[in-house]
Amino acid sequence: MKVYHLYSGGKDSSLSAWILERLGYEVRLVTISFGIIDNWRFAKETAGKLGFEHRVMYLTEEILETAAEMAVRDGHPNNAIEFIHERALEAIASMPEVKRVSDGTRRDDRVPFLELSKTRSLEDRFNVAYIRPLLGLGYKTIRELTGKLFNVEIRNSEEIEKADYEVELRHLLREMGIDPLRIFPKKHQQSRVLGWKDV
Prior knowledge:
With 199 residues, the protein is an alpha/beta fold. It is built from seven helices and seven strands, in the order βαβαβααβαβαβαβ. It has helices spanning 11-22, 40-50, 61-74, 78-93, 116-126, 139-149, 165-175, and strands at 2-6, 26-33, 53-58, 100-102, 129-131, 150-156, 189-196. The protein has a five-stranded parallel beta sheet, with helices on both faces. A two-stranded antiparallel sheet has the order 6-7. The longest helix is centred in the middle third of the chain and has 16 residues, at 78-93. The relative contact order is 0.21.
């Protein structure tokens, strides 16, 4: 049973991949890129260290441009990130070979996070199962599990080398002459998994 898992190289998507594998799935990691910068390579590097098959899927730059416009209009990135996440799930689910799609969204996530109606719509429109292994887990549990499994780097979002949507969105905003810190929280940290923790 193959599952195509949205992957950024962070602790949530890495923990989800680990759980899926323990449940018996053949996990295929997929990192989304818009081709503006090559930050996908950080996810590919982490995937290799963890022993997972990995691929990069390119979405159109128009999606990122629409998200940037949303972020500027709203004055915050929430709707923009949600928009990209939905397009990413749809792109993976639309591949003919895909029967299962997953991500690392958690119980306490606000963004990105598909509501039940959108979850059902995704499954119905593309005839796939949408799996979220962390949906019942809170921040403390995830921190405990990832701390036992992985070497994790945690840094400010502006500094960390990671392969999520936010990195390319911030880059595009800078190209538009807009300081991302006008839109994104100034004190926000993200993670990147560097490999397995030595046992």
